[in-house]
Amino acid sequence: MIYRLLALNVDGTTLQSNGKLHKSTRDAIEYVQQKGVYVTLVTSRSFASAKKVAKALKINSHIITHLGSFISADMRTGPLLAKRIPEDVTFQLARFLEGFPCQIRLVHEKFSLANKYKLNHNLLAKTVFTSGDPIFYSQQFTDSISETLANEPISPPKIEVYFEFAEDLEDARQAIKGMFSEISLSKLNDYRLDVLPEGVSKLTGLLHLGDHLGIPLKEMVAIGDGEDDIEMIKASGLGVAMGNASSEVKKAADWVTRSNDQHGVSYMIKEHFRKQQPIDFLRKMNIIKM
Length: 290
Description:
Hypothetical Protein, Haloacid Dehalogenase-like Hydrolase, Chain: A, domain 2, five-stranded parallel sheet
């Protein structure tokens, strides 16, 4: 099979566990791009944060952010895709969630808005909020999200909720499912719940980009480590799990590479793309038509 698109998760995949980018990963991505393979990021991060990673990797293509609800290559040209949670639903969700001990973070592509709640556990400390230059991406905090929204409505691509207690997350998730049909939920771990527009996922974002580029899923390689990567790993022509992924993610994959601290992305690229001829050459030989 000839693969024309490589989709990479960011945290736990492209980046090491210390949040840094290894030179071998940069070199491997440059190598596969030189072969004409389209490389994109598929991440739960905001566009501003993901764009910073893309710049470090010299990826100038469209990137899939906010768990699939926002796709863009350049803020100046406007998004390829922007799905949002309606303003009234955002307000009602915020008011409901304020009944729990949690931090609520509305993640817009241009800014974030969060309440000032400080968690007692260290989940937020482990979460990377490398949003880039604060001049271009403002992180605002308020005493009450719902009061702020009452005066200034927002329609974000994603809402992140960090709970103090795991049982509160489950209670909130079950309640939200019965309250709203306009949204979908993604549980990232026992304490973090992401709220998205209905029908949004990393896979739907990848499908949208593939339709735009004329590249079917069977000609894509998707690499990830989290539960939110499972759908795209299963659906892609070659689904790859990181060595640091959970057993559920590994079971969904066609191939398991090394961990993110053992240069798993570069190892996978060398193993699977080494023998593939450049895309332009394959077109000239009429092996591929597009």
